[in-house]
Amino acid sequence: MTGTSPGMDGIGLAPGIEPGGRFDQWSPARVRYVVCDVDGTLVGPAANASAEVVAAIARARIADLRVGYATGRMRDAVATLHTQLDAPGPHILHNGAEVRADGRTVAAWTLTHAEVDTLLAFDQERDDCYLEVYTSSGYLASSMDERARAHWDILGAQPRGVIRTGSDLGDDPVLKATFAAFTPAAVGGILERLATLDLETGAAGSPLTPGLSFINATRRGTDKGAALRRAAQHLDLDVREVAAIGDAANDLSMLAVAGTAIAMGQAPPEVRAAAHLVVPDVDAHGVAIALDALGSGALVP
Fold first, then answer.
1. Contacting residues for 215 by C-beta, under 8 A, at least 6 apart
2. What is the pTM of this model?
3. Segments making up each domain of the chain, as ranges
4. Can you tell me the distance from the alpha carbon of 70 to that of 166, in angstroms, rounded to the nearest whole number?
5. Domain 8-108+223-296 has CATH 3.40.50.920
6. 236-287, pLDDT tens digit by residue?
7. If DSSP codes are grouped into helix, strand and coil, which group holds residue 230?
8. 3-class SS of residue 264
9. Which helix (H) or strand (E) holds 151?
């Protein structure tokens, strides 16, 4: 995507930015806070963000544009990236189950021990997946299954133990449970079983683990969009002053909430259709192009 694209009422979009599926519904406004998905947006196959992305975030800070990230990962699994980006946040973790700002949790939506027990029972029905249970102090797993080691490497730690029942967790709040599927066929079966529960569920992947798929379960109503609303409230901002950038189905909820919704170039058609704008793909540092346009005010008539 090159050149200057014709925008709303003849206003030109910045080079590299194209209209998305909801472009005609967009009401451009000055953005003061932007949330970026991690895998496929801030980072590609590499573990860290590119120098171009880091520099764009630094320029955003100078322009008084707050930058946060939104991810399905736990805190420890983004610790290195968090330090590298030096972004002020708020940040969204566990697919929206936790919002953190200034080093503390400002909102959380948790699972009950009974819900954990039901998920553990589902896990026992299959041999092509295993379950991870995330708390505020790390995560436990239904078994120490070596097929998940690539995921442990990304997280930077193995499970801190094996969980047999929800009561093993004591008072530690449960933010998310994740099935790691070891075969493509497992994903549909897990989603079908989870559809019988009153939980928020969805599948996700990472370019860092092409052989694994992940099916997340959080409290009903928990998603990146709800967390984005809470983060905006924490900053005393209207959602019209907020932008979201993502590339996958689990980003759709925050794209629906944000006043400016931006899809990455490699996003599937349904994500591009849900966005106001589309930027180049992750390998072309599309998120950096978006941040520079937002910080400079180039997207405001």
1. 129, 178, 179, 181, 187, 190, 191, 194, 201, 202, 203, 204
2. 0.88
3. 8-108+223-296, 113-219
4. 27
5. no
6. 999 999 999 999 998 999 999 999 999 999 999 999 999 999 999 999 999 9
7. helix
8. coil
9. helix 149-155
